[in-house]
Description:
By secondary structure, chain A is an alpha+beta fold.
Amino acid sequence: xxxxxxxxxxxxxxxxxxxxxxxxxxxxxxxxxxxxxxxxxxxxxxxxxxxxxxxxxxxxxxxxxxxxxxxxxxxxxxxxxxxxxxxxxxxxxxxxxxxxxxxxxxxxxxxxxxxxxxxxxxxxxxxxxxxxxxxxxxxxxxxxxxxxxxxxxxxxxxxxxxxxxxxxxxxxxxxxxxxxxxxxxxxxxxxxxxxxxxxxxxxxxxxxxxxxxxxxxxxxxxxxxxxxxxxxxxxxxxxxxxxxxxxxxxxxxxxxxxxxxxxxxxxxxxxxxxxxxxxxxxxxxxxxxxxxxxxxxxxxxxxxxxxxxxxxxxxxxxxxxxxxxxxxxxxxxxxxxxxxxxxxxxxxxxxxxxxxxxxxxxxxxxxxxxxxxxxxxxxxxxxxxxxxxxxxxxxxxxxxxxxxxxxxxxxxxxxxxxxxxxxxxxxxxxxxxxxxxxxxxxxxxxxxxxxxxxxxxxxxxxxxxxxxxxxxxxxxxxxxxxxxxxxxxxxxxxxxxxxxxxxxxxxxxxxxxxxxxxxxxxxxxxxxxxxxxxxxxxxxxxxxxxxxxxxxxxxxxxxxxxxxxxxxxxxxxxxxxxxxxxxxxxxxxxxxxxxxxxxxxxxxxxxxxxxxxxxxxxxxxxxxxxxxxxxxxxxxxxxxxxxxxxxxxxxxxxxxxxxxxxxxxxxxxxxxxxxxxxxxxxxxxxxxxxxxxxxxxxxxxxxxxxxxxxxxxxxxxxxxxxxxxxxxxxxxxxxxxxxxxxxxxxxxxxxxxxxxxxxxxxxxxxxxxxxxxxxxxxxx
Amino acid sequence: xxxxxxxxxxxxxxxxxxxxxxxxxxxxxxxxxxxxxxxxxxxxxxxxxxxxxxxxxxxxxxxxxxxxxxxxxxxxxxxxxxxxxxxxxxxxxxxxxxxxxxxxxxxxxxxxxxxxxxxxxxxxxxxxxxxxxxxxxxxxxxxxxxxxxxxxxxxxxxxxxxxxxxxxxxxxxxxxxxxxxxxxxxxxxxxxxxxxxxxxxxxxxxxxxxxxxxxxxxxxxxxxxxxxxxxxxxxxxxxxxxxxxxxxxxxxxxxxxxxxxxxx
Lengths: 780, 264
């Protein structure tokens, strides 16, 4: 392992470019003669569209075209229907409403794009969009997650007769209910997992051109992988995917929502072909609030029965997830066979009932967001364990120690049919308790109390699952000058792949780190089996495919080297970039140069040193990053404000390829988790259905000062046993650990008042109100 | 942003002329509220008159027992001014808590006061520190200036030129920041002058206001104890998704006591 090899804290290659303003984003793309698009969006949560009048818009100087969804349907546009199918226990199928790209009959949420205006300038397009006249007949609306599932709720899609898309259950509840009824200890919790605005730094953007001669649309847009985008948008446009080239340049944040199909992007691609002219749309920040998918938004009710020793006997869990007006590509999956399938997380619970009701409401569709169901699942389990500790008279670490899956039970098959290959959950928790000086907390609390504040400590032990789709293809190619290029099927949108993949090629093939190029994000060059980056999958999928590609290169290189050195291929060894036979050697770059010349090749060997590997894993062989996070807070009891004073994270993400980058992933995940728990809340007005938190003036993103120094540690003694690299995902762990650790800490601080739980976000007013209510309760 | 005529006059008299001759003019000071409004196409003035080149609108000076801050002085300059800090540290502290560094280097005291945002910080200083608003036409007493939500006593064609603050014996500003915008959910200025005490609350009501019962109590005894038991009526305060009126009333009391506690 050299200076740039696997495991080294190599600084990110891409950062010089990105941090000095030399990144190239979709918005940097312009074409001569391009028209700018703007969208008229629904001002109503729910309204029938009686008529659309474009005359005033078309009269604006510079406005060239106005297109409705009806125009697009006539021009071949297909409706957006999620590829998700679940059934209830009786076999009834999940209801999926048809989502038209720019619906012309009904608007189902505030911000839904309804009409597209194309003009010579962005300003003219906007001015035109403002003058679109739609005769709306407003309809009642429903935005509340809990209310949408009630039997007498207003029904958004009358043809289905209910807002509940499907009532999915893992089994009948009877056995679990009976066990809980007889359990000596019972705990019951009700949790709201707040809706979040994802808010990537780069707003959405799309530029499309059309080559009439070849009948090919080229779409530039930020994605998390160009191949799924190519297939998805070609499907919407009703064209063969060979007729759609997708290019993603640098991308300013994905978090899950970037990998989805959006109406605006499809409309831009459609229009470019329809008018045979380049079209560009740059969404502004306000549009990201009302048209990018939102995250989370669940209501959870859970009951758990425990024996007298504090061992869980059975768990009953009911989840309502608000999927918005239509099913997103992934929305209803998240609690079921998406991330939520990790339930009951790190705990050894055999008897388990799980019910999920995805509900349709007049809100922006929700979809994957950093963790995609796992943060929600771990939050439920950790809040349950805190409640159980109190009920059973045990400390919060002891209740976990008694219920976490012990190392001796690995590999462990869960109730949801995952097999945890590795992980020392109890050992990791115990190490974290030491790192965070859990034992010394009492003296820190005393010191805080001297200053008139309250101090609390909380822990969260979590398990998540990483991997996503089970195939990925990578290609490693040498050119005739001996320079190596990685053609990536995954798609780095901030993760640092350019660096980590170069470390791997440097390590495996001995090619100097700075002589390894990186190509991604273009369906003309991305390997055909490329998928993308989400679900913390790139190292375990792309990384393995790179390792295997490098192995194939060495195999082929040995044949060429043997030929050049006039030796037996079986006698050739490869190490540190050199093929050796006895005292003779030749570098891999020289082999690559020779490989480009057919005259220098042995018989039967094709020219070039260029290998691809399509890695396929068993679909259920995800990996299971886990860890323990401990958070310490100070609460001002008069105002209800919270300060995080200490945060300790110990993560088991298997073998660490680049600790600097994995630290960054942990910090980012924790920041997003703390954001959810402390300040973020995408609130809709219950009456009007308007998004109240519709700008950064109202929606509280986490700030640097909200986070104390995060101490991030790794434990690497439990490498993943199901992939070649021993890696586990690292991108989403922080978002799983932070919310429960933080809420636990705040409730611990409020122990003097007897506050058991506060729903996220723990705003000062909510904390203050909880204290007032607890005081009143005590007095009564 | 809609098109508009842009003017950058160098004489105050020219500003007045352009104001009089334009259909729907707007004065541009720091633009920290106006520019986002224009960008969101929520306002479409015919003419924008940039005040940045008008002489004598910027800078800080002392005159007898008053400190005079030019209307176009940015918040960062007030926060960093040794003169302000020596004269009234609370005023420098308040300016240093407005928005973020970018806002503090663009936003101006005159712009903030003229905009009369109910959650802005400066109105608490104007009322709590008994300032006088100087315009191109007259001097306006602070109590007469803020007339409602984003409403002031300024007449058409009237331009704030400076703010004059008398020297308090002691003063303190406490702010409860909005987690997203950085505006004051509640901001409380308390000040003791020779004859009487003053207190002003911003963020909590439709505009900044002085709770007179508190001032009387503090005039009697400038201690946290003196206002013990006094309350604000939540019915007169704002309630929104960030803070209910009851919470705002509570926070104002806590901040008032803390402010007094820090200087009494």
